[in-house]
Design brief:
The structure is a homodimer. Helices cover about 50% and strands about 10% of the residues of chain A. Chain A contains 17 helices and 12 strands. In chain A, the strands form 2 sheets. Chain A has a 9-stranded mixed β-sheet with strand order 1-2-6-5-4-3-7-8-9, with helices on both faces. In chain A, strands 10-12-11 form a 3-stranded antiparallel β-sheet. In chain A, a hairpin with a 2-residue loop joins strand 11 and strand 12. The radius of gyration of chain A is 21 Å and the shape is globular. The first copy, chain A, starts with 6 loop residues before the first helix and ends in a 6-residue tail after the last strand. The interface of A and B includes residues 130, 134, 259, 267 and 274 of A.
Chain lengths: ~375, ~375
């Protein structure tokens, strides 16, 4: 959403997102009934939805706190800050397809990372050393295969997963149970800053929202919804990671779990998931093999949405391989790509293609072995025919 | 089979079992076609089965080595040595129901142990210390719940499983890939002697048969066929334990596997089994809970076969609990049972009931909590109503 040209719509979004007790389900219902966000706000002010007739909500909608909304707009005006709303083309398609998706996401960092195919890696805060080492190694390998790693910025497994992706020079997304400007726990601040610089911090909660117990199940649902699959590395039987896994199943996504010693209490949650049908995973390669075809399909669909002025309407997926030979965008990308590693920003500059478009094109090429992703950059694969 | 009264039948069995190239399938076909073993031998001598017309087989059937057969009879005449044949009531019903069952079993030890509900515990010869400790602990717990533990007398997991059962004072069965008078590897001799004293050594190979690579898959099939379920504790992906597990599946039995660290190569075989549908097991209690109802049903069926002069004919299983109150055998058993621990031999002597009948009765009572089995003996459970 372009802040300059559509400030009124953005303000309407912020007012609705902050309306006490409205919630994303009602907000989505208002949008569906009234077409656009400004009409939805006007309808909400008329009490068109039952939730808007509750006193606190009604009072807020009539007289929202201008200072608060102004502060939100200031936050969004900062570099690499964004609001992705469910009525916009930038809202991540996978999340949109998941039950209970939020109506909007505040993003600090590279919002094109939300378009990348993602693997969630989650688990216990009190991970064993072995569990953390596994999370790091799996994140590193899966990230090196072209997936972004999504997790929850908690200590233990989440931290190791983010670190593994960062170490591989790949994008990682941290979904927060606080506003995008807060970090919980506070000692994760340095990690959060590195994630914002190499991936994105993502939150459905507006700036300034403090941590609250009830936010974390919603945070988990976003982690699962953004991702093609969720890997649980180590988790006790009452771990939040099992909620994320259940969310993933509800969204029709794959659930993976790493088994462990029967004497490790943090293997119990993983074993429970395996008994319930999660895939038992021994190597990162198994996850990559399972998800690569889904990522390829997702990449083709995203690309089509970006290219297609009638986007949002259902249309049969084009044959990505067939279209590529004659596609002028691919020709521009191939001219820009060399045998030295280039970052996506450099490729965007050289090719003139938008980053989100590039991300999906590069993924397709990577999955087909024409492009190598390493240390955050891309190279054409050398072949004997070159 | 009573050696005194049926020496001719026993000789016929030994001649057929030793006939070169005949095999258990052909032997069973001859028996089915000709009714009893002496008629089967006569038919075999006439070349009634294709396999009997091969030169070596024909020559042996015409002139079997009397010294060899005499030595077998001598072996069988020793205390606690027996031959259980598939035409006899003593042949274990579960094994008879398994595909590829042998035609007869040589037993050294307590052949009534073959009537007990059994759990196979198998795995790698090169087990880790943790794997052996698990095998021992699971065997101990499962044996204490009233099951015999069946394994293959190999080093590693098999040894730990036998030791666990012995330590619990319970029966354990070692199925051999050699004759019942041989032990492979030889350093397992002391363990084999303890198993013969507290359970049984079991083999489909006649006395004197040395170890041979091709015997071990057949040994594994007998382990799986005798048991209500097979637990694989630790196994590499090419382990013989996986063959036992497959045999168990083919026989319609449960397969259980203990997961482990993804960095333990001996967890790989277990993980492979879990992916193929084996139950992931964390505690012995899960196996006991799963198999106790099957054991109860088996006990009732065995008891019915023993009681029923028309045994072998299908008949609906009687309600074991209902019959017990009025059953004179149970009354005799209850009179014999005290609150001091008694061995099954003492109970047989006091009650006048055959050991095989007693074993199934005691199992039922044990599973219903009326009798406690400990250290190889039985006690009535104290209740407030007593």
């Amino acid at each position: 959403m372009d802040i300059e040209t559509n400030r009124a719509a953005l303000e309407a979004w912020l007012i609705l997102l902050r309306a006490p007790g409205l919630g994303s389900v009602s907000l989505r219902e208002l949008l569906a009934a009234h077409g656009d966000v400004r009409s939805a706000l006007a309808a909400a002010r008329r009490g068109a939805h039952a939730r808007c007739r509750d006193e606190a909500c009604r009072d807020w909608l009539r007289a929202p706190d201008a200072t608060r909304i102004g502060a939100d707009l200031d936050w969004l005006a900062q570099p690499a800050h964004a609001l992705l709303t469910c009525d916009g083309a930038d809202f991540p398609a996978l999340l949109e397809g998941a039950p209970g998706a939020p109506a909007a996401l505040f993003v600090a960092g590279d919002s094109s990372a939300l378009w990348q195919p993602q693997v969630a890696i989650v688990g216990s805060r009190n991970a064993s050393q072995g569990g953390s080492a596994n999370a790091d190694a799996f994140a590193r390998a899966i990230a090196s295969a072209g997936f972004a790693i999504t997790s929850g910025l908690a200590e233990g497994i989440d931290t190791a997963a983010h670190e593994g992706a960062l170490g591989a020079g790949a994008a990682t997304l941290a979904v927060l149970g606080t506003g995008p400007d807060r970090v919980y726990p506070a000692r994760q601040g340095a990690l959060a800053a590195r994630i914002a610089a190499q991936g994105a911090l993502v939150s459905e909660f507006p700036p300034g929202t403090p941590a609250h117990e009830k936010h974390f199940p919603r945070r988990n649902r976003v982690i699962a919804g953004l991702s093609l699959g969720t890997l649980v590395v180590e988790a006790g039987v009452r771990s939040g990671a099992l909620i994320t896994a259940r969310n993933a199943t509800e969204a029709g996504r794959e659930v993976f779990a790493i088994p462990g010693s029967i004497h490790n209490p943090l293997a119990r949650g993983c074993h429970q998931l395996i008994r319930q049908g999660a895939k038992l995973i021994e190597t990162a390669g198994e996850i990559i093999a399972e998800l690569a075809p889904l990522a390829q399909r997702l990449g083709a669909e995203l690309r089509e949405r970006l290219d297609d002025p009638t986007r949002g309407l259902p249309s049969p997926a084009r044959d990505a391989v067939a279209s590529r030979a004659t596609d002028p965008d691919y020709a521009r990308l191939f001219r820009a790509l060399g045998y030295d590693t280039l970052g996506i920003d450099q490729l965007a500059e050289r090719s003139g293609l938008p980053i989100a478009t590039l991300a999906s094109m590069l993924l397709l090429l990577e999955l087909e072995g024409e492009v190598v992703a390493e240390r955050g950059g891309y190279t054409r694969r050398s072949t004997t025919s070159c």
